[in-house]
Structure formats: C-alpha cells, structure tokens
Amino acid sequence: MSGLPPTLEIEDSTATITLRRPAQHNRIDADDPAVLLRHIEAIRATPSVRLLVLTGEGEKTFCSGYTLGQIGERLDRSLEDMLDALESLDVPTLCALNGSAYGGGTDLALACDFRIGVRGCRLFMPAARFGLHYYPGGLRRFVTRLGCSAAKKIFLTGMTLDSEELLRTGFLTELVDRDVLPSRIAAYREGIARCDAAAVRSMKRHINALSSGAWDEDSGRVAYESSLRSEEARRRLAELG
User: Could you list the pLDDT tens digit for every one of the 241 residues in the chain?
Assistant: First the structure.
C-alpha cells in the first residue's frame, strides 16, 4: 500500500470524504471499502450533517478503482456493500470529480446524488476488456440512472467518454471550470441548508425507490400527508404567507 486511506472531515453541516492516493490515481486499495463504510456510518450517525461531499486529492484523477492485481483477487462484496451504503445514505451526496474516473471509480461517483466534474475529465470502464461481467449493483446504477443506451456504450465498447459526453448522458450533473468547482459545491451546500432536512431525507428515499422500481404510491401518500401535518411545514408556510 502507498498513499493514505480515505479521510473524513466534518465541518458544520458538511462532511467531506477525500481519496488520498493522487500518485496512484486515487486507486481503491483492499482495505479502503471498509474505511469508507466506517466514514459513511459515522455520517449516518451525525444528525447535524446535511451534505456529504466526496472528492479526490490532486488534479488528474478522481478515482481509478481497484488495481489490476486486486481485481483478480476481489471475490468478496466489500466494495459493493460500501457503494450500496453510500447510495442509500439519507443525506444528499455530491461527488466533486477533481479529475477522471475509471473502473470502480465510476460507480463510486454514480452512487452519489450529484456529480460535478471539471472540464477535461473522462470516464473509462474496462470491465469487458478484462473479461469481467460487472457486479449487479453497479450495472443497476448505470442503467437506472443513465439509461440502457448510455450504459451499453460504456460497458460494451470500452470506449472513453469525454467530459462533454458525460454531461449529455447525465453522468455529470454539472460540468465546470476547475476554479469554479468550490463555488458550485458551496451553492449546493447553501441550497440544501435552506431546505427542511426531514423533507429532503424523505424525498431522497422515495426518489431512490421510484428509480429502482421498489416504490408504492401508498407510501408516498403517507409521507406527503405526514409532512403536511408537521410543525416545520406549518411554520415555513406561515412565514411565506
């Protein structure tokens, strides 16, 4: 191993997880999924956190996933379980792609709710070139979030997608100049801070359920009517009135 494991910093209402191996393209080492999962659980246990920002150190690569040697040895579900936990985190999650994403790093970004990339970043999914069928959770995220056509191009051709195409396909929520990235993160943080935390968490759960086909209208109706009866909604509506 070289470099440092991913770090977690919580400041005010924002948690930031940073990948710390820039010299190795912020690869994921064998112990990193467990470290990331602990960070995610720490955020889940901190009610004051309203936003998780996930990023990488350096200016070249956000994350390159596992190394070739590790791919052949990884038959456990540690990476999958961590990504599922990230995807299901109640608070909004924003991946600040400081650079390109490769392999499992693409799914790490896709498990977040928002992805802001810097111009020039790229995506490359080499699974088929290695003779690998991608793990189920990852395929599900790509198909439900990007659609079949984009997922097929990414997985079946092994072609590299540039930043403009990543924006068109919906992989990126926004594409910005590097020097604008901090201000865009701040805009999301400020926007989320103005919203009611309970409403945001509830709607994220229901949007995810809708996307995965696991939603039912009755549960959505219950959540809607409960929010109408909440003291917070009444207070906010009264202020607007």
Answer: 468 999 999 999 999 999 999 999 999 998 999 999 999 999 999 999 999 999 999 999 999 998 766 665 655 789 999 999 999 999 999 999 999 999 999 999 999 999 999 999 999 999 999 899 999 999 999 999 999 999 999 999 999 999 999 999 999 999 999 999 999 999 999 999 999 999 999 999 999 999 888 888 889 899 899 998 999 888 988 888 7
Rounded distance, CA 92 to CA 123, Å?
Answer: 23
Amino acid making up residue 23: A
Rounded distance, CA 127 to CA 175, Å? Answer: 26
**pTM for the predicted model, two decimal places:** 0.94
CA distance 183 to 186: 5
CATH of domain 4-191: 3.90.226.10
Task: Reduce the DSSP state of residue 6 to 3 states and report it.
Answer: strand
Q: How many residues can be counted in the chain?
A: 241
Domain boundaries, the chain: 4-191, 196-240
Residue indicated by tokens 């997608």: 161
Cα(87)–Cα(89) distance, integer angstroms: 6
